[in-house]
Amino acid sequence: xxxxxxxxxxxxxxxxxxxxxxxxxxxxxxxxxxxxxxxxxxxxxxxxxxxxxxxxxxxxxxxxxxxxxxxxxxxxxxxxxxxxxxxxxxxxxxxxxxxxxxxxxxxxxxxxxxxxxxxxxxxxxxxxxxxxxxxxxxxxxxxxxxxxxxxxxxxxxxxxxxxxxxxxxxxxxxxxxxxxxxxxxxxxxxxxxxxxxxxxxxxxxxxxxxxxxxxxxxxxxxxxxxxxxxxxxxxxxxxxxxxxxxxxxxxxxxxxxxxxxxxxxxxxxxxxxxxxxxxxxxxxxxxxxxxxxxxxxxxxxxxxxxxxxxxxxxxxxxxxxxxxxxxxxxxxxxxxxxxxxxxxxxxxxxxxxxxxxxxxxxxxxxxxxxx
Length: 371
Ligand code: SF4
Ligand code: SF4
Hints:
With 371 residues, the chain is of the alpha/beta class. It is 45% helix and 12% strand. It has helices spanning 24-36, 52-62, 86-98, 113-121, 124-134, 148-157, 180-189, 210-219, 225-234, 249-259, 267-282, 304-317, 324-335, 347-351, 358-370; strands at 4-7, 41-43, 71-76, 103-111, 137-144, 163-167, 193-197, 239-244.
């Protein structure tokens, strides 16, 4: 299977800011072009487009193309589960919305510490394994937003999964909060096939400063900014699919052109991505190096470098609206002390080789994520 997947979470709209107003005419044209070039993988979820993304699968694909000519992935919204029986009801609803008859891949959506606890409580892994046994889903797995240690725990306890879907892009690769590289290495160590989400970091890797654009343009004037990011993800070990949330035909045509005969990045091109990451990271608001000297003595067990990293990342990528960083922050602050839990003892500042005013900075982080 070709490594580019069509993510159905940022579809073109007829009415701006109305996620339900999908422009079906445009999406049909995009999906037809995608299929005509031999790409077959479509990714949706119960929650995308306020529930209408799954309906789009029916209108755009199921009603217009033979079922065996494309594959559909959907996800069980673990965050919405209140009782074990919710799973059956939601799955039935998803089959009805999509009209797909079965899902090629079915994932537990957005596992991390909290949702994993819920998945255990409601026996969600047993639920999806049973669907696989019945043949109503072909492959199972989960999408994931948390630390590599949590991923390791889940994969150790659930070796039965086929796929893990991870947030991977070149900017988050060494990020202390998102831990793309560590998560990737964990999944590889467990022998899992990897589906990549957010390879362009919600579009922020095409909104880079001029210096980064020039760096890329000097090497390959004909490559789009998105293509650098998607090529990076697609070339990683065990990555079988890279999702792109394509919002118009131009994006789709660009992606198709270089992913039709995918060639991984070479050594020099990978070095350019490192340089781009250095430039982007140097624009960071908090110059924390992630050395962790501050964390050991913190009586409030605050994940200081992780919070600073997420905060920096936010300044680079979030242009308003939904924030992935906030989602990570919420997960972290359930396991570690929240930024607002700082008691002001100052131990961290005495340990910090960068002499950062950690207490003041944590107030900023708390105001941003907890306010
Ligand atoms: S000042 Fe706050 S963050 Fe620093 S060690 Fe004390 S409690 Fe932890
Ligand atoms: S000691 Fe300073 S530079 Fe090192 S992780 Fe902590 S805040 Fe960042």
